[in-house]
Design goal:
It is a single chain. The chain has no helices and 25 strands. It has about 260 residues and is mainly beta. Strands 8, 9, 10, 11, 12 and 13 form a six-stranded mixed sheet that branches. Strands 1, 2, 23, 24 and 25 form a five-stranded antiparallel sheet that branches. It has strands at about 5, 10, 20-25, 35-40, 45-50, 55, 60, 60-65, 75-80, 80-85, 90-100, 105, 110, 125-130, 135-140, 145-150, 160, 170-180, 185-190, 195-205, 210, 215, 230-235, 240-245, 250-255. A hairpin with a 2-residue loop joins strand 9 and strand 10. It has one domain (about 5-255): 5 Propeller (Tachylectin-2, Chain A), CATH 2.115.10.
Length: about 260
């Protein structure tokens, strides 16, 4: 269980996600490479990596565009090397990353995940969409949590998850999820407008989400509370805060 937040450290390197056309940013849990992927309204995708105290120049993805049909395309989340794009009508499409011989990341053509299955996050009350393990998790405005189990080609029905409510307060600004370190339990992190960080442990068994633990506040400095903070993602076991001018700051998540 995560208990505290480390001191913020600025990453040196080129600016990240500072253009007006940038509309989604994803991280990658606790992996060592710690990629940050930025998607534009035109369907382009760009990938930075965190290496030591630096952020690398962006590599542009080849292949098929992703998430360019706004406002039909409503959200984008990442699960390992797969991105899922959710439409406003609840349909979901997936695109998989590969790497070309020259090192260029490449996105596959989209695959329709649920053509005859359940809709995902299609209701007006649905507020946040997260990837947790092999599940798509939907959190409603009043903090209820629903989990859709994923297979390679299909999405299961949304099942209510018992336990604590999550991210239902008006002060809750950012919601991210993942494992802060290898072997750790999955957690949902809720960051308020004044930078407080609250964590809910996600109790799982056999890949299914069984319960949401009670929230507890993490000690340490505030995260993502400044007016200029535009994005917060989880990557490499750290919170990555990106400002409107592209500065990237990281806070370790500690036991």
């Amino acid at each position: 269980m995560s208990t505290r937040i480390g001191t913020p450290v600025r990453l040196m390197g080129p600016p990240v996600a500072f253009n007006t056309q940038d509309w989604w940013v994803t991280g990658a849990g606790h992996t060592g490479e710690a990629p940050i992927t930025v998607g534009t309204i035109h369907g382009e995708a760009w990938e930075h990596s965190i290496a030591g105290g630096n952020i690398t120049p962006a590599k542009k993805y080849g292949g098929v565009r992703i998430g360019f049909r706004r406002p039909i395309d409503r959200w984008v989340i990442k699960r390992t090397i797969t991105w899922m794009v959710g439409l406003c009508d609840g349909n979901v499409f997936s695109q998989v990353k590969s790497v070309a011989p020259d090192g260029t990341p490449v996105l596959s053509a989209p695959t329709h995940m649920n053509p005859s299955g359940p809709r995902v996050a299609a209701n007006p009350v649905d507020n946040h969409v997260l990837a947790i393990g092999g599940n798509i998790v939907v959190i409603t405005h009043d903090g209820q949590v629903f989990a859709h189990r994923l297979s390679d080609t299909a999405i299961g029905p949304g099942k209510p998850v018992p336990g604590a409510r999550v991210a239902f307060r008006t002060a809750d600004r950012w919601v991210v999820a993942g494992q802060a370190r290898p072997g750790a339990e999955h957690e949902i992190f809720v960051i308020t407008s004044n930078g407080e960080v609250w964590a809910n442990t996600v109790h799982m068994s056999g890949g299914d989400i069984q319960e949401i633990g009670q929230s507890h506040r993490l000690a340490g400095p505030g995260v993502g509370f400044r007016a200029q903070d535009r994005w917060v993602v989880l990557s490499g076991g750290k919170f990555v805060v990106i400002t409107e001018n592209g500065e990237a700051w990281v806070n370790d998540i500690l036991e």
